[in-house]
Write a structure and sequence with these properties.
11 helices; about 30% helix; about 325 residues; globular; alpha/beta
């Protein structure tokens, strides 16, 4: 059996997150500054054939699951062609998409036919005016249409990502939990992370996800662990008694899940990031065409992957062992 992608802490990596662009059609408050970003020129982004070549090599070392991210991945033209190319690589079993949902409804059938298996849709508020505020201009109706389209074409599971922020959307916890009562949907609450910024604004908005379980208790909802969600990754999942769907908690700050991390990240400009939070990056582009060299760069990245990301230290202004990234979330791919 060929060598697997295993780091110093015996974590086996079978999951690659691929950012296909740093561009986005929205400007979410936790992801980009209000003035936007200076985006990479198109010729600096990995071509689809280059991405496919990297995945083909990694599939030989045990990578089985892929997630396409951005920015907003659907601003990249002909994304279905990339999905189709990845889906036929021997060993690849699962291709997921993380999207803001603005463009997905119109292309749901095409993406499903190409080989897309799962979808995560970012939806931080169920109130149209608040959604527009958080996204700086997004139309929630288009996101809800995409959610319906994902159900129609049979993607499963369908997950909704909710970045929970104090005094912004924390009064909607009940509304999101109610979605799971009647629909086979996985709502995932995500802690606000200090990716690319560690200012007081982040600290003011941070909220530990223990508030979600506390809210269930206050509402009198009985809940129990739900472990059947495919691709649950770092999410701790629960089901309210009698609910069709489940809810999950992803809390990288208050209770990090680094000991089970199985993912690597490939940025749109061709850098391997062994850890979302730290600044370490290894450019892969010049090695494409040399399978052994590609593999060795990934093993080098794994050798430098830290035991944990220490985001909790940032919250407490404590000294950290590594240098945090200056890239914003849209430039990394989440």
């Amino acid at each position: 059996m060929q060598r697997q992608l295993v780091d110093r802490f015996d974590r086996v990596h079978d999951y690659l997150r691929i950012s296909v662009t740093d561009k986005c059609n929205l400007r979410c408050v936790y992801c980009m500054p209000a003035e936007g970003m200076e985006f990479e020129p198109d010729d600096k982004l990995l071509r689809f054939d280059e991405i496919t070549e990297v995945v083909r090599v990694l599939a030989g070392y045990g990578v089985r699951k892929l997630r396409l991210t951005g920015g907003e991945p659907m601003v990249r033209k002909d994304l279905d062609q990339l999905i189709a190319s990845l889906a036929v690589i021997p060993g690849i079993e699962d291709i997921a998409l993380t999207t803001n949902g603005i463009y997905f409804a119109a292309k749901a059938d095409k993406f499903r036919a190409a080989g897309l298996t799962r979808i995560n849709i970012s939806l931080d508020s169920l109130r149209a005016d608040r959604f527009a505020m958080i996204t700086r201009g997004g139309d929630i109706r288009r996101v809800l249409e995409s959610l319906e389209a994902a159900v129609r074409v049979g993607l499963d599971p369908i997950k909704i990502n909710v970045v929970l922020m104090k005094s912004v959307n924390d009064d909607e916890i009940d509304d999101f939990l109610r979605m799971t009562l009647e629909q086979k949907i996985h709502v995932r609450f995500i802690e606000y992370m200090p990716i690319g910024h560690h200012d007081e604004g982040w600290k003011a908005g941070y909220l530990p996800l223990s508030v979600v379980l506390e809210r269930c208790d206050q509402m009198g909802w009985k809940f129990s662990p739900a472990d059947e969600v495919y691709g649950n990754g770092p999410s701790q999942n629960y089901r309210i008694a009698g609910a069709k769907g489940v809810f999950g908690l992803i809390h990288p700050v208050s209770d990090h899940f680094c000991e089970t991390c199985n993912r690597l990240r490939l940025t749109a400009d061709g850098n391997i990031k062994p850890c979302l939070y730290w600044s370490d990056e290894f450019n892969i582009r010049s090695y494409i065409g040399d399978d052994e060299a590609i593999a060795q760069v990934f093993f080098k990245a794994l050798d430098l992957k830290p035991e944990n990301h220490e985001m909790a230290q940032a919250l407490l202004d404590q000294v950290q062992s590594h240098v945090p990234t200056l890239r914003r979330m849209s430039q990394i791919g989440g």
